[in-house]
Amino acid sequence: MLKKVLPSLIALYAGFTVSPAHASDFQWSDTYLNYRYLWQSKDPGTYKDVHENALNLTHADGWDYGDNFFSLDVEQFTRQDATNVVGAADVQNGASKSTGSGEFYGLFRSSLSGNKVFATKSFSFGPIKDVSMEIGADWCTQNDAYASNKKMIVAGPKISIDLPKGFWDISFHVAREWNTNGFHANGSSDNFNATPEFETAWLYPFAIGPVPMKFTGYANLIGPKGKGEEESPGRATEILAHPKLMFDVGAIAGYKPNKIDAGVGYEYWLHKFGTLSNQYAPNPVQHAVFFEVGYHFD
User: Fold this and answer.
1) pLDDT in tens, 201-231
2) In the beta sheet, which residues pair with residue 235?
3) 127, 142, 180, 282: which could join 149 in a potential S-S bond, CB 3.0 to 4.6 Å?
4) How is domain 2-15+33-296 classified at the CATH fold level?
């Protein structure tokens, strides 16, 4: 079935043009501002746990022909992940004269629904609720020793699983990334190969007694993307998982439901940025617990 619908969806994105959606076209939307604190972060070039304070703004909406998602992270790290204005020894050891780095990470995804565009149910079958064609881009910059300036584009099908409530989406992308790496001796930039990239995101609301909760999060897998430049040893498969358990504290406190969330999560990050084990990152894996609190505007 998937082989039959993918050519239609690809042709749709290549030749289908629609005007931007007006506010009246939105069938649903959610804008969420949150703060999280993570105290076991690790970045390439650091040997100690790094504390991270992050402010995040996300927006998701559904309209006549599909849905959109946007996320912006503003992150501040402690001195163990120092700014790149200090020496290498200071970066690795978190010397007192160093200051913590900062990062901006932006992400956008937009998809066109097969069922909505073609006014059909042909893209619903078995446990599949819909099949969409998705495109998107990532951009980030950080002023630490690694000095990431990532730009990535993705495209591919998205499958929506039919759940009684909440959602579960699985995307199969081809990704192409351009980046920098402050550890390159010649200061060159990375131009990576196209590679498979898989994303999944989910939200499942439930309650234990009178306590409303939701299990939500996302996970990504980025395949090996080549060396980037000649002196690099290459990149490994990168896996990031970010599940969290959130409580509707607004409803618990007698305020409006689905407005104020608070909870805990766990972040697993293997081969962060695709980094292989080397002298700068002897164990490139992150196991980190985090706390999050946020407010829904819509």
Assistant:
1) 999 999 999 999 999 999 999 999 987 776 6
2) none
3) 180
4) Outer membrane phospholipase (ompla); Chain C (2.40.230)
